[in-house]
Amino acid sequence: MIKEWATVVSWHKGEALVSCDVKTSCNSCASRAGCGTRILNKLGPQNSHTLTVPCDTPLVVGQKVELGIAEGSLIGSALLVYMSPLVGLFLVSALFQALFGTNLAAFCGAVLGGVGGFLIARGFSLKLSRRENWQPVILSVALPPDAIRVETTTSADSQ
């Protein structure tokens, strides 16, 4: 089970809308100044993913929940998304090269096969996303943000 913490955005009638922050591997090593990956991550969008997850327990906005998804579904979806366009690219490119015998035909076949593989992956992903074992589930719920109150006193207050 792959786990990730998310923040509750809203809860209504047994469905929680949760937001997961996008995490990068940057800022975890000593070579931050000269790292090309860090620069590329700054160029990309810094957003969060919002998911709808069934939950019978009433939740409060801002509450943290631990989400889990099965490893098999994550590996299966990654294979579908990455391998379908790649296999389509190679197969159609080789077919066009064999049929027409030119590099331009092979290039056109590669583009068509890659786009076709992407569309096939998109169609299958819609069907697979409806499976219950491919859905994220709430594993644990943290305390609401207002459940703990911490009071601090300074030395001036105690005198």
Parts with pLDDT < 50 across at least 5 consecutive residues: none
> What general outline do the C-alpha atoms trace?
elongated
Along the chain, the helix and strand elements come as EEHEEHHEH
Rg computed from alpha carbons, rounded to a whole number of angstroms: 24 Å
Number of helices: 4
Percent in strands: 15-25%
Straight-line distance between termini = 53 Å
Q: What is the percent of helical residues?
A: 40-55%
* Biggest sheet details: 5 strands, antiparallel
> What would you call the structural class?
alpha+beta
Mean pLDDT: 84
Number of domains: 1
Total beta strand runs: 5
Strand order of the largest sheet: 3-2-1-4-5
Description:
The relative contact order is 0.17. Strands 3-2-1-4-5 form a five-stranded antiparallel sheet. It has one domain (2-24, 39-147). It is of the alpha+beta class and 159 residues long. The termini are far apart. The longest helix has 30 residues, at 71-100. Helix 2 (71-100) runs antiparallel to helix 3. It is 43% helix and 23% strand.
